[in-house]
Amino acid sequence: MKSYQFSTLRLAITVFGNARKARSWMSRSQKLFCDKSALEVMETAEECERVREFLNRIDHGLIS
């Protein structure tokens, strides 16, 4: 696992409060990611940044 992937997973745990909830969200397909899961799209640093931006929007209440 690359460091940018690990930091994205850590952010998801922070946003969702625990690893189980984070894993559930990260494994679910999302329209934003063309019906792929966040885990499926996190192949490059740029894609991880896109996932982190989305997680930050959730954390700040911009997306429910």
Strand order of the largest sheet: 1-2
Largest sheet: 2 strands, antiparallel
* Range of strand content: 5-15%
Structural class: mainly alpha
Distance between the termini: 29 Å
The number of domains is 1
Please give the count of helices: 4
Task: Please estimate the helix content.
Answer: 55-70%
Outline of this structure?
With 64 residues, this protein is mainly α. The chain is 66% helix and 6% strand.
Helix-strand layout with pairing:
Layout: H1 3-16, H2 19-27, E1 29-30, E2 36-37, H3 38-41, H4 45-59
Antiparallel strand pairs: 1-2
Helix pairs in contact: 1-2, 1-4
Any overview of this molecule?
This protein has a two-stranded antiparallel sheet with strand order 1-2. Helix 1 packs parallel to helix 4. The radius of gyration is 11 Å and the shape is globular. It has one domain. 66% of the residues lie in helices and 6% in strands. The termini are far apart. It has 64 residues and is mainly alpha-helical.
Question: What are the main properties of this structure?
Answer:
single chain; 64 residues; mainly alpha; two-stranded antiparallel ribbon; 2 strands; 6% strand
